[in-house]
Design a protein that fits this description.
Order of helices and strands: HHHHHHHH
Strand content: under 5%
Structural class: mainly alpha
Largest sheet: none
Number of strands: 0
Amino acid sequence: MQGTKTRGTFARKAAFAEAYNDLYPVVLGAAYSKMGNMQDAEDLCQEIFVKFYHKLDEIDNARKWLYGALRLELMNYYRKRRPDMTDVEDVLDDAAMTFVNGFRDVRIIIKDAIESMENFGGERDRALFDLVAVNGFTYEEAGAQLGMSVRQARYRYGLAVERILDFLAKKGIKNLEDLL
């Protein structure tokens, strides 16, 4: 992404739009997971992406830069809003892992998605999901354990997967790259 000469206006806007479309949901999800307030998270992301736009020509890796900027802005947020905290770093210790490789918070979100009963039609559907997704059962094997036909098991598993994907999308995870 680094350019030795300034990009043209059109190329700059296109590069920004691509990065924004790909990374805004991920940055917003990470901000929200640390702040617990969607309005504050959106405001913080807006500030970060404005700075990102102004530094676009200097940035080699957009994802890395955005996560670093997010960490800095979160530290500033907690210093301003929570002056009673003696060490802001304590709040962001888990966040440090997130900003290095993106796995920590995503695992928590995935765990929430799998544990949330709203993503399943009931305990049988949750058991079906566990048998197929976690334990590697075939639809036939899982269906036999739960008194379902193969077709029923496949259909009910598909519904659970769709609900989980919708849950993850609401958290800003729309594709595999968002997990990295």
